[in-house]
Please model this.
Amino acid sequence: MSKYHESISGKEFTSLQKGCEKAFRAVYDLYHATLYRYAVYILNDQVEAEEIVQEVLIAFYKNRLKVNSPEGIYPYLFTLTKRQLITRFRNKVVKAKFRNHLTVHWSERTNNTEEAIRASDLQGLLEGFVNQLPPRQKEIYLLSRQSGLSYKEISQSTGVSVNTVKNQLITASRKIKAKIEKHYFTLFIFFSFITSPF
Model:
């Protein structure tokens, strides 16, 4: 039997539907690696892939009663993963279009204000957000993003476990993402104000 089609036992499935943590752990151990590999293959981003898989498994647990049999778990998880990936891509497209719109129209409707959104300034903004991270998170984030090290290499370099590396990267990425989104929202409000005809 292929690993992609393995499933938990009927007894474990019954326990899972009752909310048994041990049964859920069995599902996690059985399918996490497969879903993670698929997400990494699509996204080419280990941190984002891990975030998606965690979200998928949480969503599965909350909606576990919608699955009628042990054999239905993997198809359900895979469907959730594909939907999450599609949502991420759509969000990225929308943000990219917004950034492009902002860059073009800011330049067209103002004199020298395009200097405020030069790539170097945005890079400086990102560096500022990274510098606000706690020391350990900052170290791990830079080793991943700038040095391109894998989880295992970062673990060996810093002396912390691979799981800690994953968790620290996910936390750091979420913090930076939230700050960037907040910054873009502020730019959008400012842009709307300075281009208003009133």
Q: What stands out?
A: The radius of gyration is 21 Å.
